[in-house]
């Protein structure tokens, strides 16, 4: 072991986590065990059009609209738009923990949201900002996945 950290394979680490073995280890609780083996990457996203603004967290580091697909807050923001518009998007990427970088799961994003709500300085005090990304989404509410609706 180097500095008291035991190197183990990703497969073995996942098995320990799934079996909660890390949670009962006297030296580590589950959260500190996770932080010793991986850095969770997530982003704070700000979306803005002419009328609205929304901030939310997502897993990974979005750099284009496709990277936000599947995130509920993204779709909810777009669903509120009633006319063709350009949506400005800014993403600030963060790492929480150390080790191999992995994209945050929805559950981990929910945990980060809870931490940010409880501590407004959570991102600046406990996470490393690793980059920013700005891009636009050309939104047309009459189109679905770039295709116009077809009447049957």
Structure description:
The protein has 152 residues and is of the alpha+beta class. Helices cover 31% and strands 34% of the residues. It is built from 6 helices and 7 strands, in the order H-H-H-E-E-H-E-E-H-H-E-E-E. The strands form 2 sheets. Strands 1, 2, 3, 4 and 5 form a 5-stranded mixed beta sheet that branches. It has a two-stranded antiparallel ribbon with strand order 6-7. The protein is elongated and about 45 Å long.
Task: List strands and helices in order, with pairings.
Blueprint: H1 10-18, H2 21-24, H3 30-37, E1 38-48, E2 53-59, H4 72-79, E3 85-97, E4 100-103, H5 106-118, H6 122-126, E5 128-139, E6 143-144, E7 147-148
Parallel strand pairs: 1-4
Antiparallel strand pairs: 1-2, 1-3, 3-5, 6-7
What are the key terms here?
two-stranded antiparallel ribbon, single chain, elongated, disordered N terminus, 152 residues, 31% helix, alpha+beta, disordered C terminus, five-stranded mixed beta sheet, 7 strands
In short:
The protein is an alpha+beta fold.
* Terminus-to-terminus distance: 66 Å
Portion of residues within helices: 25-40%
The radius of gyration is 19 Å
Could you say which overall geometry the principal axes of the C-alpha atoms support?
A: elongated
Q: What percentage of amino acids are in beta strands?
A: 25-35%
Task: Detail the poorly predicted runs.
Answer: 1-10, 19-32, 146-150
Give the tally of β-strands: 7
Order of helices and strands: HHHEEHEEHHEEE
Count of helix runs: 6
The secondary structure category is alpha+beta
* Residue-averaged pLDDT: 80
Reported for the largest beta sheet, the result is: 5 strands, mixed
